[in-house]
Amino acid sequence: MKPRINRASADIGGTFTDIVIEIDGIRASTKVLTTHQAPERAVIEGVFGLLQKQRLGLADIDIFLHGTTLATNAIIERRGARTALITTRGFRDTIEIGSESRHDQYDIFIKKPQPLVGRGLRYTVAERVAADGSTLLALDENEVEALAEKLEQAQVESIAVSLINAYANSSHEQRVREILSARLPRTYFSLSSETCPEIREYERTSTTVANAYIRPIMAGYLGRLKSELSEKGMKAPILLMTSGGGLTTVEQAADYPIRLVESGPAGGAILAAKIAQECALDKIISFDMGGTTAKICLIDHGEPLKSRSFEVDRTERFLKGSGLPVRIPVIEMVEIGAGGGSIAQVDSLGRLTVGPESASSEPGPACYGLGGRHATVTDGDFVLGRIDTRKFADGRMTLRRDLAEKALATHVGGALSLGPVEAAAAVTAIVEENMSNASRVHAAEHGKDLRQRAMVAFGGAAPMHAAQLARKLSLVSVVIPKGAGVGSAIGFLEAPMAYEVVRSRHSRLDAVNDVAITELLASMQLEAKAVVFPAARGLPIDMRVSAFLRYVGQGHELEVGIPVVSNGRIDARELKDAFDQRYSEVFGRFLPNHEIEVLTWAVTASATQPVPVADLAPIGTRESVSPSGTTNFTDMDGMTADAPIYERTELAPGVLLTGPLVVTERETNTVVPTGFTVECNSFGHLVLTNLAAQAALSA
Amino acid sequence: MTRLEKQMTAKSEAQAIGEIEFQIMWNRLIAVVEEQAQALRRTAFSPIVRESGDLSAGYFHPDGRMIAQAVTGTPGHVNTMAASVLHFLRIYPAHSMHDGDVYITNDPWMGTGHLHDFVAVTPAFYQGQLVGLFASTCHFMDVGGIGFGPDGRDVFEEGFYVPPLPLITSGEIDKTLITLARSNSRYPAEFEGDLMSLVACNQIGVNRLSDMLDEFALRDLNPLCDQIVIRSRAAALKAISTLPQGVAEAEMVVDGYDRPVTLKATARIDSDHISVDFTGTSGLSARGINVPLSYAQAYSTYAIACALFPDVPNNSGSLSVVTVTAPEDTIVNAPRPAPVSSRHVIGQMLPDVVYGCLAHLVPERVLAEGASALWNLILEDAHDACLTQGIAGTRRFSALSVQTGGTGARSRLDGLSATAFPSGVSGVPIEILETLTPLVFWRKELRPGSGGAGEYRGGLGQSIEIGHREGHPFYIYAALDRIQNPARGRFGGENGGPGKVALKSGGILKGKGKQLVPAGDRLVVETPGGGGYGPSAKRDAESLAADRQNGITEQMRKP
């Protein structure tokens, strides 16, 4: 038997840094405060602390896995490097002109997202490449030379180069870098043809600029982390979680930090996928609810849906279109402003709205007693008896019911003539309906059906709302995984070592058999393999090739997987059939007499690690279990009565409990209302069953 | 269903719906129409639909009241669709509709104001009962005729006309209609594809509505619809009741097709009603910039909603507090068979006139004048000119490139540069256009100096330069305004920069009509800037410094 690989993972969030280590297949975890000035400190201290408890050191770690919101936060807080943009003459303002639309049609006072590079630092050079990659106007190299001085005077730390149609021919961008880097050796360069070689100038430029903007910070941080860990004796490679759910090397991450923006939520989705595989659930909906947002993701056959676009830093109320677009491989999820800290209020129409504004951790929900005045979802949960107050924040914080009720009365109850409990029920009902609507629209956008899916719920707030959401979506089962509170860091451990390469090449489907595409795919496979190989440590590497197709004349593509053939050639007929079938799935029927075109090719290399065999599961062993307390619990019918509280650590596989009840653990509480049962499965996950949906299914 | 929900439901069917239940169902209905719109955008062929979002989708009560609509970029569609559904119901009464029917039209007077938009209506049946209608609209690439430009002398020249007709009857497609449609378009595959997209998106609405009725154990949405309409009306009334009452007039002159057009409005705010009347506005235009009344009403009402009750959802209830009238045979109430193809170039100016009135009554709620009408560049191959000039093998193409100018400054913010208002569509990426056509964009950037100065500065227009890859001639179908009459500032704010259409070689082109960009030449366009708000002396130092640093107030340089 091969020796097990010892692993550590760290997820740096805005407030906490979550650390998980896995030694001989046994996991331990901790949460430490994020050290914003030098984030590596919290990581190293956290890992060190956990290892010390086992009398081990950094040298005993074989792989270090890492994800972080640092990249996202640097953009949101506008703390990135002094960045310049070089673009084609005539296109200085592409990143400011954007989509030319308004993200809210009725609000005449909207503000558009501010580009990361102001007009004063946007430079243009004479050159032009055509849509087919041919050169219409040669690059004026003297002009580029002359730019060097300006850039130096402007004390630019990072430069984005994004020329029109560079996705089809990168030679001018490369030449710009060659010329300038000779003169500006300490400056970072990000080329659009490398960062995001895809059609659509605004999105490509926006992505490249965002990459350039965070690159010095991320490269600096990752460099320090790597050198400090190795100084302290770690020999293991560090792999970074990408927003696409794969892993990448420190070097790649330092070059393309934009690929890390949603790495935390991606870790959560990976965890959910792993749970699905473990529990043999073919199709699930993953539900991750934290303090500010809820993330919903659909996972079929153990694999999350992927997408290639995302918006970072939505300026106003999470509205679509109010953020900066980035085109990178991401795990497709819908993120809405619905978390524990989401604020409830009644608008001029007498409508109760919840979120997306959040009370976050400071001042936090009213019941924290830290000065928060707004009524939040957590206040609602608390008043409804969903939270075991004895355990909250390890008993370090006493929740104030009076403050929660007062906030609910002031901001909700008064305007709607509701008592505190009714107001609390209304707040949670609205937030749950918002999440179920988001889930439905998200599913529909992808041609997926929610029914027959199981839900996997994690994150601090999700287990309190999961049952109600399941009821709304008519789902039978809800799984609350072990370690739900540090879900993303656990997810990093489960991620396949994967790397995706994407290239735009526009052609009719009947023309794809040509040599150029074959060569392209071969080079993409080499590139992807090169990244994965060092991290795979001898594991076999799988290649997946897909194409993004549409009917000629349409503007939106569907991804279709392609079986890899040994000679690398593509069978256009097979691809057509696969596309027609996929199109029917999504839109009801396909169009038999329309030509098909391909826009983009994607290659993913991945090495999947063997599933760790066993965890030190904190599973109880007793056949029957007694509650550790009671809570004044308001059930779904609005009736309030005492309900038992059980300790999660005491639930043994085989014990079946019937709601209403609450299961409590350190980071969260699982609400099991009337009409639901809960049991602990052999992996230590809680499984809730929605009896009404189950009965309907078997009827 | 919980006991509580069942009780609420039972009660709702008897009388009123429980508060929370009501809000949840309303949200659900909005989710249903959003999904309908999403399906249309993803399946559409016309680039302006798929890239720019020139579409709309909504749910209507069987009696024709508009209840819920997707948030899309087209107030002109949304509010005209409300009128379209009533026309369909008049011609095909609800009791005559069957499950599986789909009705269509592109009648400018019953639809959205020109032949290029088709409206499709699909009745939704649940357990054999008609429970609503789903309607959708989108812009089609080509409907034959003289193309998408303002040169038509009547609507017959403007293209293929389909009166309200069943496209599908009880699931059976009318093949004759499809054949006729295909035969009358220069792009038949796209034409048929877009018709099928409308059908598919309405069907998605019907299916989701049925799921919703299942889930809430309802037989119909009558109580919900009543509540939505009653409450929205009440909310709009409440918003109006806080406004100063009074009557105000405004007048604005725009370029027109061959002579200036005066747009004149009188707005009246009463305690429970707002009315706008366009008496005094110029008569019909000889060419296709005339506006059917429903389109004029749509944009005027939209302007009022944005300024006075932006938070109230748009439906029959909120629309009922506004009346918009215009004498017949004015340019904003053009009867059939007036040519109307480019009706947007006048219709999208109407919010500026409405705000001119409101500026006297609620000055902090209005914008200064902006570029307002979209600066769509409709560009086509010049096949005939190439034949005449002996240029062989020119590629056929038809591109609708949405372009925008600057919006007017706001009472507390600068105007938005290169942004559509009152339309809300997006631009088409030039890299996409260059894959679809032999055109090359040599410039598309902000136009310094074009935003009207003021305490709050108007948004900037753009400078755009377009050539043909092979140097072949090509056509522009211009329907562009604010060349002679720039956007005016308000309350001491200065005017925005005027627009310009020209040739690189130096010749000036007209703002309206089909014109040739000769072989080897390039089209040079400057879109108008928005007007300023308040005197520029009051602009704060920080904003002035930022403007200077960003080089956006400097004078126009030679390109």
UniProtKB/TrEMBL annotation, chain A:
Domain Acetophenone carboxylase-like C-terminal span(s) in chain numbering: 541-683
Domain Hydantoinase A/oxoprolinase: 204-499
GO cellular component: cytosol
Domain Hydantoinase/oxoprolinase N-terminal as annotated: residue spans: 10-182
InterPro entries to which the protein is assigned, alphabetical: ACX-like_C, Hydant_A_N, Hydantoinase_A, Oxoprolinase-like
Listed PANTHER family: 5-OXOPROLINASE RELATED (PTHR11365), HYPOTHETICAL 5-OXOPROLINASE (EUROFUNG)-RELATED (PTHR11365:SF23)
Protein name per the record: Methylhydantoinase
Lineage: Bacteria, Pseudomonadati, Pseudomonadota, Alphaproteobacteria, Hyphomicrobiales
